[in-house]
C-alpha cells in the first residue's frame, strides 16, 4: 500500500529534502519532486532518489507548444523518472507530443522504460467559482475534469491528476486501467490550507484513487515518519 503514497518533497533545497527522505527510510513510497525542489536542486537530486531505489514522480506540469513539450518530455525521460505530468489544458496535440518525446528517448536508450505520463486536469486548489468566473470554464468541476480525462486518454496518456472527489466519474469515463493521481489529501482534522477539493487518505483509497499525493500533512508534521505511517495504516484499512 505504501507504493500508492506519493510524498511531495516541496522543499527549497536538496539538504532539507534529503533529511525528510532519510526520516522515511524503509517506507517504499513514491517520491514527488516538484518545481520548488527541481528548480533549486535540479536533475542531480532526481538521480540521487533513483540511486536510493525510489520511484520518482517529476511534477513540472509542462504546458507549452507541442514542440517544446516534446523536447521537455525527452529530457525528463532521460532522467529515468517513473512518472511526469503535463497540463491537459495544452490540448491533445501537446499531450501527444509529450508521449512522442518520451517514446523517442526510450527508443534511443534501451536502459530506459516509458514513464507514466499524466495530465493535470483542474488543480485541486481551484473551486467551482474560480473555474467558472476566472478561468472561464462553465459547468461543474467534475464535468470539466472528465472532459480533460477523455482528451488525455485519446492522446495516449496513462492517467490524470485530479481531486479524489472526481475519481469515480473518471473511472466511469476512462476505465479501470487509466491512472488517477490525487492530491488534495487531508487527514481528518488537518487544515485544508490552499487546497479546495479535499478528502482523507482513507476516503481517497476507498474511492479508487490509484495514488494519493501528500505534502504538508507529512513534511510539516512534528514527526514526519509517524505521520506517513499513520496515513499508510489508514490506506490499508480503507
Ligand atoms: O500535480 C500535482 O502534483 C498537483 C496537482 C494538483 O492539482 N494539486 C496539487 O496539490 N498538486 C501537488 O500536490 C502536492 C500537494 O501538497 P500538499 O497540499 O502539501 O499536500 C503539491 O506538491 C502540489 O504541487
TrEMBL record:
Pathway assigned in UniProt: Pyrimidine metabolism; UMP biosynthesis via de novo pathway; UMP from orotate: step 2/2
SUPFAM superfamilies: Ribulose-phoshate binding barrel
Family: Belongs to the OMP decarboxylase family. Type 1 subfamily.
Boundaries of every Orotidine 5'-phosphate decarboxylase domain copy: 4-231
Subunit organization: Homodimer.
Active-site residues from the entry: 61
GO molecular function list: orotidine-5'-phosphate decarboxylase activity
Job of this protein: Catalyzes the decarboxylation of orotidine 5'-monophosphate (OMP) to uridine 5'-monophosphate (UMP).
InterPro entries recorded: Aldolase_TIM, OMPdecase, OMPdecase_AS, OMPdecase_bac, OMPdeCOase_dom, RibuloseP-bd_barrel
Binding site for substrate: 10, 32, 59-68, 124, 186, 195, 215-216
Organism lineage string: Bacteria, Bacillati, Bacillota, Bacilli, Bacillales
Keywords: Decarboxylase, Lyase, Pyrimidine biosynthesis
Catalyzed reactions per annotation: orotidine 5'-phosphate + H(+) = UMP + CO2
PROSITE patterns in alphabetical order: OMPDECASE
Organism: Paenibacillus zeirhizosphaerae
Name this protein carries in UniProt: Orotidine 5'-phosphate decarboxylase
EC number, as in UniProt: 4.1.1.23
Pfam families from the UniProt entry: OMPdecase (PF00215)
Amino acid at each position: 500500500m505504501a507504493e500508492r503514497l506519493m510524498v511531495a518533497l516541496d522543499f527549497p533545497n536538496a539538504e532539507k529534502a534529503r533529511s525528510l527522505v532519510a526520516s522515511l527510510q524503509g517506507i517504499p513510497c513514491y517520491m514527488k519532486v516538484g518545481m520548488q525542489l527541481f528548480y533549486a536542486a535540479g536533475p542531480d537530486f532526481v538521480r540521487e532518489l533513483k540511486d536510493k531505489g525510489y520511484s520518482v514522480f517529476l511534477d513540472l506540469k509542462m504546458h507549452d507548444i507541442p514542440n517544446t513539450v516534446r523536447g521537455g518530455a525527452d529530457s525528463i525521460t532521460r532522467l529515468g523518472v517513473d512518472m511526469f505530468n503535463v497540463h491537459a489544458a495544452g490540448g491533445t496535440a501537446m499531450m501527444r507530443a509529450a508521449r512522442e518525446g518520451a517514446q523517442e528517448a526510450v527508443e534511443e536508450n534501451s536502459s530506459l522504460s516509458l514513464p507514466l505520463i499524466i495530465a493535470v486536469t483542474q488543480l485541486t486548489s481551484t473551486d467551482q467559482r474560480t473555474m467558472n468566473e476566472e478561468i472561464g470554464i462553465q459547468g461543474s468541476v467534475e464535468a470539466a475534469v472528465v472532459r480533460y480525462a477523455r482528451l488525455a486518454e485519446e492522446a495516449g496518456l496513462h492517467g490524470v491528476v485530479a481531486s479524489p472527489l472526481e475519481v469515480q466519474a473518471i473511472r466511469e469515463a476512462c476505465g479501470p486501467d487509466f491512472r488517477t493521481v490525487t492530491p488534495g489529501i487531508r487527514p481528518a482534522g488537518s487544515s485544508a490550507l490552499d487546497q479546495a477539493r479535499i478528502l482523507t487518505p482513507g476516503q481517497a483509497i476507498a474511492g479508487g484513487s490509484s495514488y494519493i499525493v501528500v505534502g504538508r500533512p507529512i513534511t510539516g508534521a512534528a514527526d514526519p515518519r509517524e505521520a506517513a505511517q499513520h496515513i499508510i495504516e489508514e490506506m490499508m484499512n480503507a
